[in-house]
Specification:
By secondary structure, this protein is mainly alpha-helical. 73% of the residues lie in helices and 0% in strands.
Length: 131
């Protein structure tokens, strides 16, 4: 038998590889889902503080959520949730073979990025008073 060899790269240089936008959206979908899962104990702690009827619990909640870093974390979580939601709808449509052509897939990936950022801006303006 004739041996066929393919020239393959010895290593992948991640700084050189240019990922298309649909691949970038896919990676962000996974990262946002993992981040939302990992930050869940913090969110449950915030929920417990917000539902506690003691005055010191309310003061602790206001002190914690008044911190600039916590506000930025909550803004990031807001974006992660909205991006994960929008990308999830995109992937559900791709699963039923809607928009699987390359141009449609690129348009839907752009739409996910734009819509999730616009919704995050809108929610931040409403909830956080426009950080």
């Amino acid at each position: 038998m004739a041996e066929t060899t393919k020239t393959r790269p010895k290593f992948l240089d991640l700084a050189v590889i240019r990922l298309p936008l649909p691949g970038f959206v896919s990676i962000l979908h996974r990262v946002s889902g993992a981040g939302l899962f990992l930050i869940l104990p913090f969110l449950l702690c915030l929920l417990q503080l917000s539902l506690d009827s003691r005055p010191e619990a309310g003061a602790a909640f206001l002190a914690l959520t008044g911190n600039v870093f916590v506000k930025l974390l909550l803004l990031g979580l807001c974006w992660a949730y909205l991006h994960h939601f929008c990308a999830g709808i995109r992937f559900l449509l791709l699963d039923v073979h809607v928009g699987i052509e390359i141009d449609a897939a690129r348009r839907s990936a752009k739409a996910v990025m734009v819509v999730s950022l616009l919704l995050t801006t809108f929610v931040a303006a409403k909830i956080f008073g426009g950080i």
